[in-house]
Design a protein that fits this description.
Layout: E1 8-13, H1 17-29, E2 33-39, E3 53-57, H2 58-66, E4 76-78, E5 80-85, E6 98-102, H3 103-106, E7 112-116, H4 117-134, E8 139-143, E9 149-153, E10 156-160, E11 164-167, E12 169-172, E13 186-202, E14 208-213, E15 218-224, E16 232-241, H5 252-262, E17 269-273, E18 277-285, E19 290-291, E20 294-296, E21 302-303, H6 311-328, H7 332-360, H8 368-380, H9 383-395
Parallel strand pairs: 1-2, 1-12, 2-8, 5-14, 12-20
Antiparallel strand pairs: 3-7, 4-7, 5-6, 9-10, 10-11, 13-16, 13-17, 13-18, 14-15, 15-16, 18-21, 19-20
Helix pairs in contact: 1-4, 1-6, 6-7
């Protein structure tokens, strides 16, 4: 395709899951667009070895399947989600303070899936590189090329990556983690640390995820592919108060003992634990996604507490909505306005929900745990509310 027939030039900054998903969707849905993908990471870097765990909702899985970029062989389906409080604080007219969501009761193939960051990025990157090889005149990669500055221009934006280039639109999808980010207009340090790693389980049910509300904060077990010997494995996210961290000083034997008192018996017994990595937690969000001809999506727009596991899913929905608006609108500015107002309900509902849940663990209010337990029991007794909540978690607010 010649430059004369290219309707717009888009810079995508960041080749993580959200940036790659956007670039790949744009390559296929905007045949008249020139797309350049920037990332500081060299193409030769072994991204497949990145062990970080990602939890994707059903909507995200389906989006990646449509892109032919879903590594099904590397993902473990989530078939059930069990949410409860430790210790149980009250009995209720509706039963114990817990909630169980299942794919069978919701009539969906799965609730979501869990896989490594490396597996997902490898699949997305391979799909993008195939598209680029087939259409090199309009699709370009700039791996190993960090972007140092963005400068607004009339009707566009200048991207400085060693050499300044002009684009009609720049989409920033390079977010990072809370502890390494420059603070955005909406920022809150929760004073919490997430200890993350993997565990091996004896007993339990394959495909079941657990979220446990404890006095220190939420903890989760997310199902992974079984070990070679067939034993169950899970990703662990263990959130605690940073100032009074009950995990840091413990050795592995002590951590195992605590974990086995923390989760319900139906999770199985934790028999082995990988080294844990501590990550500071906070909210760091832009007030708007759009600033002139620059759009921020994913962690570049909002970094959230992991309590609801919605950060990556929200970013993928950002990408999909932006792409749909660009495809259907008559011009770029109209598309950006549409993206801003269309994303607002889902974005702010998710930010508000995760922020409320994260801060609730710091409140020293009598009866707060009992109220959380009462809410779980009420949800369990109300199938219509369950379906509404599950739909929001799987597909966003729409």
């Amino acid at each position: 395709m010649s430059e004369a027939t290219t309707a717009m030039h888009i810079a995508v900054i960041g080749a993580g899951p959200v940036g790659l998903a956007l670039a790949l969707q744009a390559a296929r849905a905007l045949p008249q667009a020139g797309i350049t993908l920037f990332d500081a990471r060299p193409l030769a870097a072994d991204v497949a070895a990145d062990p970080r765990t990602l939890a994707l909702s059903l909507g995200s899985v389906q989006m990646l399947q449509r892109l032919s970029a879903w590594p099904a062989e590397a993902a473990e389906p989530i078939l059930q989600v069990h949410v409860s409080q430790q210790p149980p604080t009250l009995s209720t007219p509706w039963g114990p303070p817990e909630l169980l969501l299942t794919q069978a009761s919701l009539k969906v193939p799965l609730l979501g899936a869990v896989l490594s960051y490396g597996a997902l990025v490898t699949a997305l990157q391979a799909a993008w590189l195939r598209e680029e090889a087939a259409q090199p005149r309009r699709l370009r990669s700039r791996f190993g090329t960090p972007v140092s500055a963005l400068k607004p221009l009339p009707g566009g934006v200048e991207v400085d990556a060693g050499v300044a280039e002009s684009f009609d639109l720049a989409v920033v999808a390079e977010g990072g983690v809370f502890g390494e980010q420059v603070r955005k207009p909406l920022s809150r340090d929760y004073g919490q640390t997430a200890w993350v790693g993997t565990v091996q389980l004896q007993g339990g049910t394959r495909g079941r995820a657990f979220e446990r509300f404890t006095r220190e904060g939420p903890a989760a077990l997310l199902p992974l592919h079984p070990a070679p010997d067939g034993s169950l494995r899970a990703a662990l996210v263990w959130c605690v108060n940073t100032a009074q961290d009950p995990v840091h000083a413990l050795d592995d034997k002590q951590r195992l003992a605590v974990l086995n008192t923390m989760f319900p018996a139906s999770a199985g017994r934790v028999t082995a634990l990988s080294p844990l990595k501590g990550l500071p937690l906070g909210l760091n969000a832009e007030r708007t996604l759009v600033q002139a001809r620059t759009v921020r999506i994913g962690n570049a727009a909002q970094t959230l507490h992991p309590v609801a596991g919605q950060g990556l899913n929200l970013g993928l929905r950002d990408a999909h909505s932006l792409l749909t608006a660009l495809r259907n609108a008559s011009d770029i500015d109209q598309a950006l306005k549409r993206t801003e107002w269309q994303r607002a309900p889902d974005r702010w509902a998710t930010i508000a929900t995760t922020d409320f849940l994260a801060r609730s663990f710091t409140w020293q209010l009598p009866g707060a745990p009992s109220l959380r337990g009462l809410g779980l029991a009420a949800l369990q007794a109300a199938p219509p509310l369950q379906r509404w909540l599950a739909h929001h978690m799987m597909f966003g607010l729409r």
